[in-house]
Amino acid sequence: MNNLQCIVCGNTQNLKFELKHKVYKCPSCDLYSSDAAFDLSFQSSLEEDSREIGLKKLRLHNFELIVKALKGTFFKEMETFKGLEIGSGNGWWLEVCRANNIDCIGIEPENTFADYYEKNKLNVVKGFYPNESTASEEGYDFIIFNDVFEHISDLNNLLLSIKKDLKKSGILIINIPMSSGFFYRTATTLYYLKIKSFLDRLWQFNFHSPHINYFNAKNLSAYINQYGFKLLQSFRLETLDFSSIKERIMADSKISKPKAYAISSLLVLIKPIIQNTSADIRVFFFRQ
Ligand SMILES: [Zn+2]
């Protein structure tokens, strides 16, 4: 394949990076798309073992910010509201909802966390969305994606189903990594210095569920607009928990100790730069 067609503006995306999969970039809206596909065997060449340290604290912090926006702004007048999380992964969002008295169910095709859901009594349907088991007569007040939207190939079908499953006044929430962020831009620079591993990592090309698209704030909003949704608000979320960064990188068995030490020291050193440049993750709130 020499090029792809941009889902946002219809222009031809040109080959930009030759990684484990090819990555194409739209010259008009800057959307990056890969020719990777979701591996339904769910076999990863890398396991996610070392990622939990520090990550949970960071994710929970980000989720609290989203809850605050829901309770304080969008559903301020409502006593209860009901949500659906597409791609529940480790179940942390559902736990935060429960702690905040928010009624939210999840849907997840993978088995990895099934025991965890059961043990913690999390309501998660097994399967791919859209699904009969998550269809709702009265509709959801919100549908949320936490680090999932960028992994989905058939976004058209997905968004048409969301329009049906969401109440007219419902909120679509997309929590997603940005191609305009510090890490993506750094990885791009490294790519041109012939170091491809960081960009491969950001695209998650070593995992069974790689990224299909890498959006920025502008092209994501333009894309969702096509389905009749209007952006209400968006804000940055944090990517790194600096209090545990050393521990996290040192725990990664795939990186040698001296290298891990060097990377973590460098990250702490450039903390002000990371926190003051364009966000690596943002959350977007849309309404139909
Ligand atoms: Zn485009």
What's this entry about, in short?
By secondary structure, the chain is of the alpha/beta class.
Can you tag this structure with a few keywords?
single chain, 288 residues, alpha/beta, 10 helices, globular, binds zinc ion
Based on CA atoms alone, the radius of gyration comes out at 19 Å
Q: What is the helix/strand order?
A: EEEEHEHEHEEHEHHEHEHHHE
Which regions contain 5 or more consecutive residues with pLDDT less than 50?
none
The secondary-structure class comes to alpha/beta
**Tally of strands:** 12
- From the spread of the alpha carbons, the general shape counts as globular
Proportion of helical residues: 25-40%
Number of helices: 10
Strand content: 15-25%
Largest sheet: 7 strands, mixed
Strand order of the largest sheet: 7-6-5-8-9-12-11
Name every ligand kind in the structure. Answer: zinc ion
Mean pLDDT: 90
What is the distance, rounded to the nearest whole angstrom, between the alpha carbons of the first and last residues?
35 Å
